[in-house]
Amino acid sequence: MKLMLRNTAQGLSAYVPKKDLEEPVVSKEKEGLWGGTITLANGWVLALPEMAADTRLPITVEARKVGGGE
């Protein structure tokens, strides 16, 4: 699924355009963002692609849902 990641005043945020869903990122599997999973406030767990550590935000990536609700 397409996922837009951006920094907000409250921290990292993820937006899923197809679902018109925006949720804060509550945890990351890895210290860096790329190549691991993130957990959104609604419980979704998403796998992010491998990218360079200095990749700038905001960015739209192809993420894979690996757990969580609906």
From TrEMBL:
It comes from the Bacteria. Pfam families: NifT. GO terms for biological process: nitrogen fixation. This is Putative nitrogen fixation protein NifT. It comes from Zoogloea oleivorans. The gene is nifT.
